## 1
Amino acid sequence: MAARRETLVTLAGLVLVGTLAGSTAPVAAAPRQTSKQPVATGYLGAVATVDPEATRAGVEVLRRGGNAVDAAVAAAAVLGVTEPYSAGIGGGGFFVYYDARTGRVHTIDGRETAPQRMREDSFIDPATGQPMKFEDAVSSGLSVGVPGTPLTWDRALRRWGTTSLAQALRPAIRIAERGFVVDETFRQQTAENEKRFREFTSTRELFLPGGEPPRVGSVFRNPDLAATYREIARHGVGVLYRGELGRDIVRTVQHPPVAPGVTRKVAPGLLETSDLARYTAPLREPTHVTYRGLDVYGMAPPSSGGSTVGEALNILERYDLSAMSRTQALHHYLEASRLAFADRNRWVGDPDFVKVPLQELLSQGFAAERACLIRPDRALQSPIAPGEPDGRYAGCPAAGTGAREPYEGRSTTHLTVADRWGNVVAYALTIEQTGGSGIVVPGRGFLLNNELTDFNFVPLQAGVPDPNLPGPGKRPRSSMSPTIVLRDGRPLLAVGSPGGATIITTVLQILVSRLDLGMSLPEAVAAPRASQRNGASTEAEPAFETGGLTALGHRFQQREEIGAATGIEFLTGHRMTAVAEPTRRGGGSAMVVAPKR
Ligand code: GLU
């Protein structure tokens, strides 16, 4: 199918047309203004995403009587249009669902999967025997895993939804057709990817209209994506896993549409139609820990989100953070995170391929053994060695030296939805890096993921088994941490974030800030962040106060922004507060169905 060009129209032009026509109503086909607010409190349902169009689509589904699952899929499909560099049918994710009727938490593992032809050394350059350059691996066919997002939507709706996928895709189709207003974040993300987008003809045509990143205030349309969504609506997700759309994906991965004049060698991928046909999005038991009397549910492997947040909480529960000074509480937060990351890197991978000692990682005995390494007066020096989650916990083994930190991208999106019946969804979806592999499937309007670069190309530490090496049909380890917290069996809050490995620390810091440090959820989401992942230094946002912590031996490295969370808190009397970022990534959007009772 030939790629079609989206049309650009300036918003100013549209407004002018409306004014000349003597009407203050918006022009019929004009994109709506995209004002947004980061916090909303009310009744009958709530949605928080990074994008006002997606949030609005979700709230409209709820208003019309849809449930949280219907709204989450509708909002996610819109994010595929308005946040195409972070989300979409070319990627994967993890869907966590609290079912109010049964009081149980379920999860869907929609992680991208390596093709059968992938081998442990697939990212090693045979010419040199060395790992490929990371950037080359990212923007290549080789990094593309089987997309899991379409099947996730389909499974979620069939199991727990009340609408069809066709209905859930409707708002997204409309927005892809009428277009959305380009904001500073979209322009900036395009500009940051400009060089590699230029390397692929299909990507250049779609995302660099007229050869440039779209202007702020212009309207971005994606009729190809509208047509693709329509095809899925009409014929089901089989068009991707067993049909023409799938064949287009495989062709693109095997023969990336490299633009003339590109001199770097773009590695073709190993994906075949049989890989798409065998893809599954399994239901997995969530991880579960208790924290100060609350039940915390998260995503199990192949995500390391639930196990790492859970282990860190188990460690922290041994201390009364609320009685500590700010410095001591944050010191313990950083140390717990450091220890949990050492263990995550050593023990967590795809459970269908490696034995993940999940129960032990989340046990109180293991937490006690790890906690005993924390000193109130001195920060541990990373990288520290992983612990042995072997069920034999006595004494206090020395910290030892561990592995370097693996590299991970930073571009998921997370959405949180609740409905009037008390169902809750925390859903993280991604195409890995901002812009994924950089390869648009020609004529289809969406980017393919580069999720397979979440594998470690070589073992992190020589002589130590690495659970996250590539393999045929294997899922790369993720950090996505959609989390639902219950109190007495009822939802208290749900939260999640993008940000690669910083997702884990972002979610952990928000939980600690909300549950221990006396902040409200909006305050916890807004608070300056720091992320310690068993690295020699801790990444910290500029506003994060490092003073007292530096005196304890913590070293910091500044990072402009960490994460872009969304969440919902459930208040008394059926009220709920939806929370998005006030400023990070240009701010997110929170809405409720009914502000008043
Ligand atoms: N690939 C990352 C993961 O699964 C998510 C992408 C991101 O947020 O950077 O953990």
## 2
Amino acid sequence: MGKLDGKVAIITGGASGIGKEMVDIFRNEGADVIAADLDEEGLKLVGQWTNVEGIRLDISSDADWQEAARKINDQYGRIDILINNAGITSEKSAEETTVEDWELMMRINSYGPFAGIKHIAPYMVEQGKGAIVNISSYTAQIGLGFNSYSASKGAVRTISKSASTTYGKQGIRVNAVFPGVIETPMTKKLKESGGMLEQLEQATPLGRLGRPEDVANAVLFLASDDADYITGAELVIDGGFSAQ
Ligand code: NAP
């Protein structure tokens, strides 16, 4: 028996990196998974996996969310799990960041998860049950990186807490995870630019960078009924980096 048997899960950013790993783990635990992303090539690949449907959805678009929520609910008859995972990063320093850069970061990384909850939670409320997990970042918990990315992930932290208190009585659990540096296409560029990742790895108490499955397995727990009394929680998955 799988931990997610009979459940319908939406995973944004499901065509790459951490999201793709979650799609694989969730389907193997018995869920019907909708991988929502902008990466057409990645969507084609995960869309070939059994129990996975790939859909194009821009998380910063209300219209996309509205249409996807209605279609998924019509097709599957329910929506049990939402994983707000899709996001972008930026290597720009504060000095290099323009208002347009800031607005783009906030629109995708902060409004995206907010809009996801806004459009999916009503279906969960009707069912009287649902689980939402938001992917923030360790940079939202410590003073590392005076930049738009850390700020956008700080908003995700607050969105999670406030949604957990807003929807708790309606049976919806909302939790957040805070990954450290995880080896994915997002961090590949950092690796190629040299130096920084090695320094972070050396500074990590567990002595290695994270892998997508480190995050995916923790999210699986929070999304499953094993975490039935857990809401508003913050789980750091960073090999101990921010504990220092
Ligand atoms: P990734 O490999 O770059 O995957 C992110 C996916 O999100 C990509 O397929 C990307 O598509 C998609 N995406 C971007 N903007 C979107 C939008 N507006 N609507 C829908 N999909 C969109 O990144 P990852 O490393 O797996 O990161 C997943 C999440 O974990 C992100 O929220 C990230 O901030 C967070 N996180 C990552 C790390 C890390 O070290 N990797 C650490 C802490 C937190 P395109 O490629 O087409 O843009």
